[in-house]
Amino acid sequence: MTAANVESVLIGGEWVPAARGTYPIVDPSTEEVAGAAPEASVEQVRAAARAARDAFEQGPWPRMSGAERGALLAKAAEAFRREMSTLVDVTIAETGALRGVAESQQVGAVPLRLLKYAEMAVRSPDDEVLPRPMPGGAGLACGLATREPVGVVACITPFNFPMTNCAGKIGPALACGNTVVVKPAPVDPLGVAALCRIVGEVLPPGVVNFVNGVGPEIGEALVDSPDVDMVSFTGSTTVGTRIQAACAPRLKRTLLELGGKSAQIVFADADLAKALRGAMQPWTFHSGQICIAGTRLLVEQSIYDEFTSRMAAAAKELRVGDPRTAGVVVGPLVSRAHRDRVEGCIARGRDEGAVVACGGKRPAHLPRGFYVEPTLFTGATNAMEIAREEVFGPVVTAIPFRDEDEAIALANDSDYGLYGYVWTGDTPRGLRVARALRTGTVQVNSGSGMNPDAPFGGYKLSGIGRDGGAYALTAYSELKYIGWTA
Ligand code: NAD
């Protein structure tokens, strides 16, 4: 097994050959085979969940002190660092990420996340609850609230930031004393396999398990396993709602981080150069394959034509191409199937009557690779599909607004509620609008700038629950009250 050729799955501390062999991983920038990934059977998925259950019920991990768990997680982070340069190449080859993105936000983010939760593992799980006098002078009700692990956590991750997302799940889950079964997206699972191998070698057997396969039956079997207590899922709203339904009969806990169609609100008094850079982020950051992309660009009427013209002109300056080439800012989409999906969204946007102000096609100079030009739709309404459905590609839809109230109403007229951006020279207005938006995060006069200590999650169809920073410890633990009288 090498980082680029993974034939096995990790069950109870052993790498066992995948029952259904392997399938090829395709480099989205060249369309050439970049590696091989394991195709597990449903029985292997169930066995992995059982192994995680055994490790939870009989193994040392949940019974260790937080300090002991933290020390092992820190050791795993160090072990990961030693393999980072190989993993950057694997990540570029399987995800199509630009080198800078692969180095910092993909591979480089992993040890930072593991270390953060290694430090948090050390914190006491106990919270004092203030004593209260009991009625009739019967004494004081005293007690403490303590956090305990939920049990076996299924960690199901999406294709866009595979390792980062996985580290953001297993970090807090393991810090709390849970055991995990990881299932990455089938299109780019190699980095996640390496992460599970590295962490699995440091932790007791069965604490980290890894399964993989192309079809939905792999994820479904994991969600349905009676050995799984919680599903931590990041991915599309369509699959998230399915998982929520599958978890309902046994009331399994879910943490759902789902899709978005976030508003990017630009007022006429904003620093327009900065706002322009922010508005272009769905093009320049991982080709728009980011859940928090501000793809609904709401621009004050008085500057709408000027702002969208500047944006369309700026798009022509963006270099689209091979992610390994210096100066390239827009790489490929992850797969042929995903490019087909994005092109379908663009075609339907045109059919609905929105105007393609720039892009809309495959770049003529790139005959190979799954590229789409940075695309801007103008003349759109918020009722059109291109303004309502997540595209998950380099596609922005611009809509004009008259005033603050209309900007807020348009932004909130969405099934999603993940993120929002406000650009204005009037700081009180920035805060007022941020409070009015029904989304999990709002950035005022700044791009995504994700704060690793901030809570992260969505309103409405963008998800249930919060992770991020110390908030994740709540997501991955049960809260128990132990009371006594004095
Ligand atoms: P997806 O929903 O197609 O797949 C996500 C994962 O679910 C994959 O591992 C997939 O194999 C698995 N899966 C598919 N069907 C399943 C089923 N029936 N049961 C269990 N698991 C199943 O998503 P994707 O295309 O990999 O990723 C893109 C989506 O992820 C976008 O919608 C994006 O917004 C979302 N996303 C959200 C966040 C966030 O934090 N909110 C972050 C990144 C990506």
Task: Explain briefly what this protein structure is.
39% of the residues lie in helices and 22% in strands.
Architecture blueprint of SSEs:
Elements: E1 8-11, E2 14-17, E3 22-26, E4 33-38, H1 42-58, H2 66-81, H3 84-95, H4 99-121, E5 126-133, E6 140-149, E7 152-156, H5 162-175, E8 179-183, H6 190-202, E9 208-210, H7 216-224, E10 230-234, H8 237-247, E11 253-257, E12 263-266, H9 272-279, H10 281-284, E13 296-300, H11 301-317, H12 336-352, E14 355-358, E15 375-378, H13 385-388, E16 395-401, H14 404-412, E17 416-417, E18 420-423, H15 427-436, E19 443-444, E20 459-460, E21 463-464, H16 471-475, E22 477-485
Parallel strand pairs: 7-8, 7-10, 8-9, 10-11, 12-13, 12-18, 13-16, 15-16, 18-19
Antiparallel strand pairs: 1-2, 3-4, 5-6, 6-22, 11-21, 14-15, 17-20
Helix pairs in contact: 1-7, 2-4, 2-6, 3-4, 4-5
Explained architecture:
The model has no long low-confidence stretch (mean pLDDT 97). The chain is α/β, with parallel strands linked by helices and 486 residues long. The strands form 6 sheets. Strands 14-15-16-13-12-18-19 form a 7-stranded mixed sheet, sandwiched between helices. Strands 9-8-7-10-11-21 form a 6-stranded mixed sheet, sandwiched between helices. It has a 3-stranded antiparallel sheet with strand order 5-6-22. It starts with 7 loop residues before the first strand and ends with a strand. 39% of the residues lie in helices and 22% in strands. α1 runs parallel beside α7, α2 packs antiparallel against α4 and α4 packs parallel to α5.
